[in-house]
Write a structure and sequence with these properties.
The complex is a heterodimer of chains A (about 110) and B (about 475). Chain A has one domain (about 10-105): Glutaredoxin, CATH 3.40.30.10. Chain A is about 25% helix and about 25% strand. Chain A has three helices and five strands. Chain A has a five-stranded mixed sheet, with helices on one face. With about 475 residues, chain B is of the alpha/beta class. Helix content of chain B is about 30%, strand content about 25%. Chain B has a nine-stranded mixed sheet, with helices on both faces. Chain B has a nine-stranded mixed sheet with strand order 17-16-18-19-15-20-21-22-23, with helices on both faces. In chain B, strands 1-2 form a two-stranded antiparallel sheet. The chains are: A alpha+beta (about 110), B alpha/beta (about 475).
């Protein structure tokens, strides 16, 4: 699959108002770091967060440069959990999944698919 | 107070420069910081790095029309705004006018976790956005080193910093990066490795209970620069670096001759007076009339309509005016006309740097053509002889380059070698007038002698003189030759 620029604010997982968790992933274009982080967070949502009906948006800083300042971003990729509080931020490609879950305040459970 | 732009550029360089607008700094760097390049400003905490950066931005906007971006890693925008407001800079106005962006990354106050690989592209996006928003030409990163404390992957920071500095260069940004002074190195994290164009070191130390700030241009690729440590002050209008005003001895030399105020004394000089812009030293013991002689100089200048400043270090202004009235000089008339400024202060009240700044400011404000310092002895107590010498060298240089005549008096004590008393100023003086008070023939006789006067023939007579209600009088000498 050829690398594709992520759209401005693409809802990866459609979520209603009843979303149990709100996540924003800030990336910079289609670099390998961005692609890895997107793949990782999507699989985390799919494998662990389905019950929470997650609201995940991926924001390309190149297309929304002003959002970097507004959200105090300096590293990329950056994942921000906006809801539920307390909010938290993780920088990196999210390759350590159980660590991500821990940071998000979720008890890791064994994945359905290996 | 009017701030003079650096007068002329004595240093020729191939690299274009961006004036900082900071008093004195542009003079020692020969016109400013390297344009389109990065300058590292390093020093210990509280040495004035942030302030230098802010002033560089604000003056860039106000004086060079170049918008700027401040990215602070330690202070908040409110703190920054507040800190420089005391210097008369209103950042809010500049921000409103889209001339300035204050951005902060409080990395040490931000909680985040690292998970896997990352880069600092977010920082680049932010800076790029800020630059594009206002069309910035100048950037200050203060203090970027905190990244090293906030992030664990030092390798990434180093490679990203290298990329950042290259990126700034590619975008043709005139930048300042500040760094904290490290042990045995300029900065803790070795930022000097990345910034190779210009490095400025600031220092703040206490010497004999006197706090002094100093600035040194450690490196300036492709440009001549002053390598000395220059004292600087943080005063009400920002930073003031006090340079030896010219790096080269290239003063315009005046052939203009001015009167000493005493026709008989004028006669003793081959040119019937002294050169404008020269330095005159008057030394003598107690009660030899040093102050009254220099008051004649001041009176003569004011009569010509030329402003003069009298720095008095022992007597107050009313005291001087009263005393001079007794020899028929009404200085108060010139004070009222605004031609004469009498500034009385005790040398020991301030450090050398403060004196120098006070002196510079007065000269800038009143644009005198004659400056009197009476007497200079007390300066000895506020610095080492080398420091005093360098102080006077700066003053003399500064005045000479502006064609302002300087007269200093120094008190000599009988039995003491006169060389010590003149605090090494005698070699800087163009003209040296010695006054003495000798007991002779049952009475005290005052005598004047011109020890030297560069560039002219002068009398070698020892002339007696008297002072009365009509001022100084040189006695005629019988049989002597001029």
């Amino acid at each position: 699959m050829s690398p594709r620029r992520p759209s401005t604010t693409r809802k990866v997982v459609p979520a209603g108002a009843d979303a149990g968790i709100r996540l924003r992933l800030y990336v910079t274009g289609a670099t390998s770091l961005s692609l890895r982080a997107m793949a990782n967070i999507k699989s985390i949502c799919r494998d662990y967060l389905e019950d929470l009906n997650p609201d995940l948006q991926i924001i390309d800083l190149y297309r929304n440069p002003s959002s970097a300042r507004a959200n105090h971003i300096f590293a990329a990729p950056t994942l921000i959990k906006e809801f539920p509080l307390p909010s938290c931020r993780i920088i990196g490609d999210l390759s350590k999944k159980d660590r991500v879950l821990h940071s998000l305040g979720l008890t890791p459970s064994p994945p359905l698919t290996s | 107070m009017p701030r003079k732009k650096s007068s002329g550029n004595p240093v020729h360089s191939e690299f274009p420069k961006a004036p900082t607008g900071i008093q004195g700094l542009d003079e020692i760097t020969g016109g400013g910081l390297p344009r389109g390049r990065t300058t590292l400003v390093c020093g210990s905490p509280g040495c004035g790095k942030t302030l230098l950066g802010m002033e560089f931005l604000v003056r860039g906007i106000l004086e060079s029309g170049e918008p700027g971006v401040m990215l602070a890693f330690e202070e908040t925008a409110e703190e920054l705004t507040q800190n420089v407001r005391s210097l008369g800079f209103d950042l809010d106005d500049l921000i409103k006018d889209n001339k300035l962006i204050l951005d902060t990354i409080p990395i040490e106050a931000t909680e985040f976790e690292e998970n896997g690989e990352y880069d600092l592209e977010g920082l680049f996006v932010r800076l790029g956005d800020a630059i594009d928003t206002i069309g910035a030409k100048r950037i200050v990163l203060d203090t970027i080193e905190v990244l090293f404390g906030g992030l664990s992957n030092q390798g990434i920071i180093r490679s990203e910093l290298r990329r950042l500095f290259q990126w700034l260069k590619n975008r043709n940004m005139t930048s300042i990066v500040t760094g904290e002074r490290g042990e045995g190195s300029l900065t803790r994290q070795g930022l000097e490795e990345y910034v190779s164009d210009c490095v400025i070191l600031l220092d703040h130390r206490v010497n004999e209970q006197m706090s002094t700030r100093r600035l040194r241009v450690v490196k300036y690729r492709g440009s001549m620069h002053g390598t000395n440590e220059f004292p600087f002050l943080i005063e009400q209008h920002g930073l003031s670096v006090l340079p030896i005003t010219s790096l080269v001895l290239e003063h315009k030399i005046s052939k203009d001759i001015i009167s000493t105020g005493l026709p008989q004394l004028d006669e003793m000089f081959g040119i019937k007076g002294v050169y404008r812009g020269s330095t005159i030293l008057v030394t003598g013991g107690v009660g030899t009339g040093k102050s009254s002689l220099v008051s004649h100089f001041a009176d003569a200048a004011c009569r010509r309509g030329e402003p003069a400043i009298y720095f008095a270090f022992e007597e107050s202004s009313p005291q001087i005016i009263r005393n001079m009235k007794s020899i028929g000089l009404s200085l108060d008339k010139w004070v009222k006309k605004g031609l004469l400024q009498i500034q009385a202060s005790r040398p020991t009240l301030f450090g050398l740097e403060s004196h120098l700044v006070n002196f510079y400011n007065a000269v800038h404000t009143y644009a005198p053509q004659l400056v009197i310092m009476d007497p200079i002895n007390d300066f000895l107590s506020i610095g080492s002889p080398r420091e005093i010498k360098s102080l006077f060298l700066r003053m003399v240089d500064f005045l000479r380059s502006r064609q302002i005549t300087l007269i200093c008096t120094a008190l000599t004590t009988p039995g003491e070698s006169s060389q010590d008393t003149e605090v090494g100023v005698s070699s800087l003086a163009d003209t040296w007038i010695l006054l003495s008070n000798r007991e002779y023939d049952g009475e005290h006789q005052r005598q004047l002698y011109i020890l030297k006067s560069r560039g002219m023939a002068h009398s070698h007579q020892v002339r007696g003189y008297t002072m009365n209600h009509r001022g100084w009088h040189l006695k005629e000498v019988s049989g002597g030759h001029r």
